[in-house]
Design brief:
The two termini are 44 Å apart. Strand 15 and strand 16 form a beta hairpin. The protein has 3 domains: 4-72 and 106-181 and 282-357, FAD/NAD(P)-binding domain, CATH 3.50.50.60; 183-281, no CATH class; 369-443, no CATH class. The protein is of the alpha/beta class. The protein has helices at 12-23, 37-40, 54-62, 66-69, 106-119, 166-174, 248-258, 269-275, 300-303, 312-329, 334-364, 370-385, 393-399, 404-422, 433-443; strands spanning 4-8, 27-31, 49-52, 74-76, 78-82, 88-92, 101-105, 123-125, 129-134, 139-143, 149-153, 157-159, 180-193, 208-212, 217-222, 228-235, 279-285, 290-291, 295-297. Helix content is 39%, strand content 22%. It is globular. Helix 3 (54-62) crosses helix 10 (312-329). The strands form 4 sheets. A 7-stranded mixed β-sheet has the order 6-5-14-15-16-13-17. It has a 6-stranded mixed β-sheet with strand order 8-2-1-12-19-18, with helices on both faces. The chain binds flavin-adenine dinucleotide and ligand E0Q.
């Protein structure tokens, strides 16, 4: 007898989890609110993309999907910074082209994962929204587009239904999860740079473009077909803010002043700014992710974070692999597997949540702060002097699968070293490098070997 699992949500994390669990012999049913994107299209046809890094690739590799995704992923070597005066500079993410990140279409990735889940034997029911859970009867009510209800009996529930999780709501009604949502006072708007008239990319394709402007910024990630998805991050209230920049004309004026080089590139700015929704951002913390061995939350449903490290999906894919491994190791003792899942993943989710928040500040401001630049240069120097010992935090998060909590803790130690050594200094040649080597040796263990 195959153990039965009922998943809620066939987004990125739900579809990968369904694939891995079906591949490992579970009988998997999935209920997804939206219609099948392979038939009806994805998100009204808007192309939205995400940065895929090592942790995400690992999940895809375990599921046997790397070869399917590689052809649709666009390499991003670094941040292409667009300064206010229009000049640009490429800041590489890694040492060479083996240390890069990849831009993938959310829709194409989701569809490939749905195909894989079904190929592995998962049954996906589209247009079925979770409405309520009856914990006494072990069933749940689902509703279709016309609000027609259907009842489904379940044995074990897994919620991958995103930041607004309905399963989380149903679990909270049973007993408090200690839920806390910390809103960011900034929102976002997605826009588009279409392919150039010649049909190619209008700006450098192999980079994550960024226009840092202090309290707000734009980014652009390439799509395989030659367009870019632009995202404006800006305060909800302020000047500029989404409360004052309201009309197409307001948006046009903001872009003309602060993002002048994008002006000829975003022809539908006025129309899209008004038509596309303003997204909200924040961090979700729960004290508890599971209800005994009966229900578990994963991905954004358990730990939504702000997007500024490009790690939400990557982290969710790590969840999926960890869960599949734990169910194997505990021989399907769900109670023990779910408790261990939370024990192992929660410190990592908390760490990437904190690092993602920090990265927004770094991204918008510190490009201009001389003390930050000195610390960054010293960091580079120490990383070169002590490879595998003093390792940039961005590298640990993006190019390794070290636990996020380790990246965070080592990052804190490294920052303290850089702060102490650069205190009162204005140039690298004033820093005592012998002392630096000694501090690294004392406070950090080598990572490799
Ligand atoms: P979702 O992708 O939200 O999927 C949830 C699914 O559940 C959906 O299909 C939904 O329809 C379904 N659902 C919801 N409610 C119900 C219900 N009641 N019943 C049934 N089904 C339901 N991450 C990265 O790794 N890299 C990036 O570059 C990146 N950029 C981002 C940029 C922005 C602006 C934002 C907002 C996020 C970004 N992220 C990024 C984060 C990433 O989008 C999320 O972490 C990821 O989508 C989480 O996947 P998920 O499957 O948990 O949730
Ligand atoms: C990445 C890749 C939405 C988003 C996604 C990202 C990144 C950023 C800024 C943003 C962080 C970085 N970053 O460039 O440091 O590495 O995914 Cl805003």
């Amino acid at each position: 007898m195959k153990p039965e699992l009922t998943l809620v949500g066939a987004g990125l994390v739900g579809a990968l989890t369904a694939t891995l669990l079906a591949q490992r012999g579970f009988s998997v049913s999935v209920f997804e609110r939206r219609p099948d994107p392979r038939i009806h299209g994805f998100l009204g046809g808007r192309s939205i993309n995400l940065a895929l890094a090592e942790r995400g690739w690992h999940g895809l590799r375990v599921a046997g999907l790397q070869k399917h995704i590689e052809p649709i992923a666009v390499m991003m070597r670094g941040r292409m910074v667009h300064h206010l005066d229009g000049h640009t500079e490429l800041l590489r993410y890694g040492r060479d082209d083996s240390e890069v990140i990849w831009s993938v279409s959310r829709g194409a990735l989701n569809m490939a994962l749905l195909d894989a889940a079904e190929a592995a034997g998962a049954r996906i029911h589209f247009g079925q929204r979770l409405d309520a859970v009856d914990w006494g009867k072990s069933n749940m009510t689902l509703r279709d587009d016309s609000n027609v209800a259907r009842v489904h009996d379940w044995t074990t529930l897994i919620g991958a239904d995103g930041a607004g999780s309905a399963l989380r709501g149903a679990m909270s009604k049973h007993s408090s999860l200690g839920e806390r949502f910390e809103p960011l006072e900034h929102g976002y708007k997605e826009l588009e740079i279409p392919p150039s008239d010649a049909g190619g990319f209008a700006i450098e394709p192999n980079a994550l473009h960024i226009w840092p402007r202090g309290n707000y910024m734009c980014i652009a990630l390439p799509n395989a077909e030659g367009s870019f998805t632009v995202t404006l991050f800006m305060p909800n209230c302020g000047n500029p803010g989404f409360d004052t920049v309201r009309t197409g004309a307001d948006a046009h004026a903001l872009f003309a002043r602060d993002f002048a080089d994008t002006q000829p590139l975003i022809p539908d700015l006025k129309k899209d700014f008004v038509a596309n929704p303003t997204g909200i951002l924040g961090t979700l913390y729960l004290d508890r992710w599971h209800q005994d061995g009966r229900a578990l939350l994963i991905g954004d449903a358990a730990h939504a974070i702000v997007p500024f490290h490009g790690q939400g999906m990557n982290c969710g894919f790590e969840d999926a692999v960890e869960l599949a491994d734990l169910l194997r190791d505990t021989e399907n003792d769900f109670d023990s597997a779910f408790a261990q899942f939370q024990h192992r993943r929660k410190p990592n989710a908390d760490a990437i949540a904190a690092m993602a928040l920090e990265n927004y500040v770094e991204m918008r401001h510190s490009v201009a702060d001389p003390h930050f630049l000195l610390m960054r240069d010293l960091g580079r120097e120490l990383a070169a002097r002590k490879p595998g010992h003093f390792v940039p935090r961005y590298w640990m998060v993006t190019f390794s699968r070290l636990p996020y909590s380790v990246a965070f803790e080592r990052g804190e130690i490294q920052s303290a070293i850089l702060r102490e050594l650069t205190n009162g200094k204005s140039a690298l040649d004033q820093v005592d490098l012998a002392l630096a080597d000694a501090m690294v040796g004392e406070r950090l263990t080598p990572l490799t070997g």
